[in-house]
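Bench notes, afternoon.
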Amino acid sequence: MSIKIVRKRLSVRSWRRGTKELDLILGQFSDKYLNEFKMSELNLYEQFLSNDDHLIYSWLFNKEESPKIFKSLIKRIQESMHR
């Protein structure tokens, strides 16, 4: 599968989470940064998106400890929320 197709698929998944808050946070993040991501980063982001919305929300707002594998990605998303 080409990297362009993967980016497009992850963008759609980012914008259609199920909660308006995450749609906006992850959708805007994907619009800004997915084109810069290498395939390994896209794979990690896909793993991240595979989690339930309530978990992702808890990680992004520091209500719950995230798995170590997602720490740097979550930090990038959090930083993008403040721009």
